């Protein structure tokens, strides 16, 4: 989902049509740290599937839309976020699943 702002202080959420890797990974990490693995891991499996399907042949994740802004006017991009957050989320998910089974 993208946030779309207009000149007249109107803010509207619009569907981008596809999941965003960094945002999906950050949401996945939030669920992991909130204990979702112990409650119901189904949403985590769905998020992991989305991230795995995004991964390119060379192991990287695609560069998508800009994920950060400051003061509603300055947009910034951290190129390593596209790989950092999905790898972190998938690794943490695996670690917690193994710990739960062990």
From TrEMBL:
This is Achilleol B synthase. GO terms for biological process: triterpenoid biosynthetic process. Residues 12-95 form the Squalene cyclase C-terminal domain. One of its GO terms (molecular function) is intramolecular transferase activity. Pfam families: SQHop_cyclase_C. Keywords: Repeat. It comes from Zea mays (Maize). GO terms for cellular component: lipid droplet. The gene is Os11g0285000_4.
